Amino acid sequence: MEWRRFIDSDNPVAAALLAKMGYNKREKREMRFAYLRMVLRLRNKLDDARLALIMSVADLYFNPDKEEDDVIIRELKRENEEGGAVIMELMPAWKRWGYEEGIEEGMEKGMEKGMEKGMEKGMEKANQLIVRKLLGKGFSPEEVAETIDLSLDEVRRLAKT
């Protein structure tokens, strides 16, 4: 069935199934935009749980694209700031992406920090081993400092630990 016949409907089932109706690739974005506007209209007639259910069903058929939906949401927010926020709250795919991005970002930062600390400790241990070996071979602290490009104080500190 042609999707445009249903965009003015207040039927929640029509909204949920809009993505399965007849449209081509060129119309996909336009249809997605019209669908989200339809959801905004329905929010005055349905509770959040029913709206979320409709959006979950629709997302199964839409195969939402994060970048494309991001552009659409920004346009919706320009038209209606509150409406854009409502859509973000109800859209399961956006919640999932936000959650995944948050976890990924946190893991990346944690790994970076862990790697930095690990590298610092590794360098410290390596320098300590080199300082001890060179001092054990009879090099003076001054010669060790010059050879491995450390300050004399750093060589003395590493020799003590």
TrEMBL record:
Organism superkingdom? Bacteria
The identity of this protein, by name, is: Rpn family recombination-promoting nuclease/putative transposase
